[in-house]
Amino acid sequence: MSLRDQSLQASESLGPWHKGERSLQQRLGVAEKMESQGRRVIRDFMPDQHRLFYAQLPFLLMGAVDEAGTPWATVLEGPAGFAHSPDPKTLRIAAKPSPVDPLGRSLAKGSPVGILGIELPTRRRNRVNGVITEIDPQGCSVTVEHSFGNCPQYIQTREVCVPLASSAPCDPSIERSATLDDAAKETIAAADTFFVASYVDIEGDPARRSVDVSHRGGKTGFVRVDGPVLTIPDFSGNRHFNTLGNLMINPRAGLLFIDFPSGDLLHLTGTTELLLEGEEIARFQGAERLWRLRVEQLVRRRGALSLRFRFGEYSPHSLKTGSWT
């Protein structure tokens, strides 16, 4: 048994949650309930339903960590079946980040990753956290450590209007900055969706690193921009606290904003702060807490996504209708 397997086995004996997640669950008085629920819904393999789900997707989200310890979120795309599961413990992805992607040179055998499969027309989503155990020019294989589903809350429906190109789009020019420029602020102000990567080294041990990538959604403008700082409402959810639990221990996060009509990608990374109480929370209707990201790096890749999407039917049950006051 490898050192990582021994470490994971030890952590499983303590339950499905690390101390950051448990801290937030205890704060809400749901820790005991979530301990039981977590053991029931978080698996170390993919059920057949999830395996079939990934095989029909045209894209998925990946979170990983670069050589400097910085988390980034990115998107991978391909024809249906580019992500498939040859067995319940394995997710094979026939795609890799472009060399100019923030993660383009960071993935290797042994890299922990978070995977989010999301089907925008139906608002279905499932998650995998695991480690890359094979990598080659065509893609990589991820061995599953945690697999679980998420509810469809706060997902805006979208339909593909331009299918995947016959060949991947050429790498556009890359724009980099240490802060937000006006174009980035406009992208964020127009967004109803973004994705966030975070990670934690369990008990400070890099051999037990766990990476997660998740979806955040709300009404257009739900992310407030103040100079280089983003303020994001956190709504009632499944009480897993995968992202905020990670940020309690390790306050670094990577955000990805997708311009769905143009295929532009805006990658951000920086340091976070959690706001668990205070009058500011009441300034966003429906928020239970807030978190902030101070942007430290920006990477813009225009037209990097081949797929294009159009806005789908609006569902009052999918998005919070509140706004900043």
Structure, briefly:
It contains six helices and 17 strands. With 325 residues, it is an alpha+beta fold.
Features:
325 residues; alpha+beta; eight-stranded antiparallel beta sheet; seven-stranded antiparallel beta sheet; 6 helices; globular; disordered N terminus
Q: What does the secondary structure layout of this molecule look like, with pairings?
A:
Elements: H1 3-13, H2 19-28, H3 31-41, H4 48-55, E1 59-65, E2 71-77, E3 83-87, E4 90-93, E5 112-119, E6 124-136, E7 139-150, E8 158-162, E9 174-177, H5 182-189, E10 193-201, E11 209-217, E12 224-226, E13 229-234, H6 242-249, E14 252-259, E15 264-275, E16 289-301, E17 308-311
Antiparallel strand pairs: 1-2, 1-5, 3-4, 4-7, 5-6, 6-7, 8-17, 9-16, 10-11, 10-14, 12-13, 13-16, 14-15, 15-16
Order of helices and strands: HHHHEEEEEEEEEHEEEEHEEEE
Q: How much of the polypeptide forms β-strand, as a percent range?
A: 35-45%
Q: Mind telling me the C-alpha Rg?
A: 18 Å
**Broad structural category:** alpha+beta
The number of helical segments is 6
Give the averaged pLDDT, no decimals. Answer: 90
| Biggest sheet descriptor | 8 strands, antiparallel
Query: Distance between the terminal alpha carbons, to the nearest Å?
Result: 54 Å
Helix content: 10-25%
Shape: globular
Poorly predicted tracts of residues: 1-13
Beta strand count? 17
